[in-house]
Design goal:
Elements (H helix, E strand, L loop, with lengths): L1 E8 L3 H12 L8 E8 L6 H11 L4 E5 L5 H10 L5 E5 L3 E3 L3 H6 L7 E10 L30 E3 L8 E4 L1 H6 L17 H11 L3 E12 L8 H17 L10 E2 L2 E2 H16 L3 H34 L6
Parallel strand pairs: 1-2, 1-4, 2-3, 6-9
Antiparallel strand pairs: 4-8, 5-9, 6-8, 7-9, 10-11
Length: 318
């Protein structure tokens, strides 16, 4: 097996050094060849110097690529085109991986029926959730990029998160690359480039595996432990969901391209927010309101774009 680990980075040279140190300590079977491809997405800090130091220490393992076009999906797709490895694993520049992470994440590919695998993403050691966060609610930690389905391995029926996932290379040839209208880029924090790709595979009937023994510890910067960060994340998540095609049913009742069900849902959660006094539950209601607001906003924007497109098209003559 030949594995390429892909790490895209932008102006995070300090956390990048920690991430590279952790993956450099990976324990892999001798029969598995692996490399790490660092894609510098136009950083202006000391990122090149940090990577060069690791290249000096591990000349056969670390590769550096400079991708000048901003946008994480641009960096991801550039790396995919730079390797012929049969398995592509993905990690971020603000994590620490366990020494057995890569081995555990890729061993599922010895079974031919699985096209991809996702691992467990947990907070960095010493993390304490804020009191206003209802951490028992499913996906409440998603804005912090946490993905934890428990200690039991099994088949995945939802997409893994981008900082701890791997796919056979062939699925990118079959289903396309990461969408460039999704993923962080200048002027936009709309993400979901990773989950959209996983959803694409699942909808096509491909099978994915969940491997909890493949553990990644994700950093939690102080600025992310604010309600404003969570609300902005959920708002952007709602916009991304619409771009993923969550409301493609043209027969669904809608107003200006926005399904009426969204208005009903945001009213319901607004009422629950007004009537709830327990802080974590109250914030959960508010987060769902922001999520729905993002969906409504993107539906309106998509409808306006379609109208402009129709108006700009030349009218055919009989």
């Amino acid at each position: 097996m030949h594995v390429s680990v892909i790490l895209c980075t932008y102006n995070r040279c300090e956390s990048l050094a920690i991430a590279l140190e952790s993956v450099a300590a990976s324990r892999m079977p001798e029969a598995t060849a692996w490399e790490l491809i660092v894609v510098d997405n136009n950083s202006s800090d000391d990122t090149p110097r940090v990577v060069q130091e690791f290249q000096r220490r591990f000349p056969k393992t670390f590769r550096y690529i400079f991708e000048p076009k901003p946008g994480k999906s641009n960096a991801l797709n550039r790396a995919i085109g730079e390797t012929n490895a049969g398995v592509l694993a993905f990690m971020d520049d603000d994590v620490q991986v366990e020494p057995d992470w890569l081995h555990m994440l890729t061993r599922a590919f010895h079974d031919a029926k699985f096209a991809g695998c996702g691992g467990r993403i947990i907070p960095e050691r010493g993390f304490n959730a804020p009191l206003w966060l209802n951490s028992s609610e499913p996906y409440s930690m998603a804005p912090l990029a946490m993905f934890d389905l428990g200690p039991e391995p099994g088949e995945l029926h939802e997409p893994p998160f981008g900082t701890n996932m791997a796919f056979r290379r062939e699925v990118f040839s079959r289903y396309g690359e990461f969408r460039r209208d999704l993923g962080p880029q200048p002027g936009s924090e709309i993400r979901s480039e990773d989950t959209e790709f996983g959803i694409r595979l699942l909808r096509a009937g491909e099978r994915l595996w969940y491997e909890p023994a493949a553990v990644v510890h994700h950093a939690v910067p102080h600025h992310r432990l604010k309600q404003s960060y969570f609300l902005n994340w959920w708002y952007s998540k709602g916009r991304a969901d619409v771009r993923e095609g969550c409301f493609k049913d043209e027969e669904r009742l809608s107003v200006f391209g926005t399904p009426l069900v969204l208005f009903r849902r945001i009213i319901v959660w607004s009422v629950r927010w007004l009537l709830t006094f327990y802080a974590p539950k109250r914030f959960d209601c508010k987060a769902k309101m922001w999520w729905l607001a993002g969906e409504i906003r993107e539906c309106f924007a998509g409808n306006s774009m379609r109208r402009r497109h129709r108006i700009s098209q030349p009218q055919s003559t009989p």
